[in-house]
């Protein structure tokens, strides 16, 4: 069992209580059983999350929609698990969905994991989405500095010269300046 799955199952064990469905979803190797947990009415959130994670890690596309919903959840641990599974799913829609979530101003408080997922995927959508998200975070008194810092770090990791203008602008923000210097140093001349 990989570390992400172990962490997820420990967290969800507490949510599931003594439910026999928990043990069944952890133990099964039948992807159809996992997929059914995503669509059967009345399934608790922990069951849907466990099924989606396991399907995504197995490369089963039936998990895509559930994982995208979890990537935008208010609970950061659910977002992190969804991002991990989406990165392994290999679905070509993932980068577009992550970019849409990262740039959605109504959900910016939950954009940290979509930003990190875009960097991990290194998809064509990553740099434009991170530039857009970071530019919006550079407004005075923006409360989402964690998202801004993830964008700065991610743009440095991606090493795309299109990020230079917004990274230069980030230098004026004390919380971001040090990381912006490092990110700019990673860009090609």
Rg over CA atoms: 18 Å
Q: Examine the secondary-structure arrangement and name the CATH architecture of the largest domain.
A: Alpha Horseshoe
- What's the CATH topology name of the largest domain? Leucine-rich Repeat Variant
Question: Helix/strand-derived class?
Answer: mainly alpha
Percent helix among the residues? 55-70%
Roughly what is the average pLDDT, rounded to an integer?
96
Just give the CATH class of the largest domain.
Mainly Alpha
Unreliable stretches (pLDDT < 50, length at least 5) are none
Question: How many β-strand stretches?
Answer: 0
Keywords: Lyase
Protein name: Adenylosuccinate lyase
Enzyme class: lyase
Pfam families: HEAT_PBS
Explain briefly what this protein structure is.
The chain is mainly α and 189 residues long.
Summarize the structure in words.
InterPro entries: ARM-like, ARM-type_fold, PBS_lyase_HEAT. This protein has 189 residues and is mainly alpha-helical. The chain folds into two domains: 1-91, Alpha Horseshoe (Leucine-rich Repeat Variant), CATH 1.25.10; 94-189, Leucine-rich Repeat Variant (Alpha Horseshoe). Helices cover 69% and strands 0% of the residues. It has twelve helices and no strands. It has helices at residues 3-16, 20-27, 31-39, 45-57, 64-71, 76-89, 94-102, 112-121, 126-137, 145-158, 164-170, 174-186. Helix 4 (45-57) packs parallel to helix 6 and helix 6 (76-89) runs parallel beside helix 8 (112-121). The longest helix has 14 residues, at 3-16. The chain is elongated, with a radius of gyration of 18 Å.
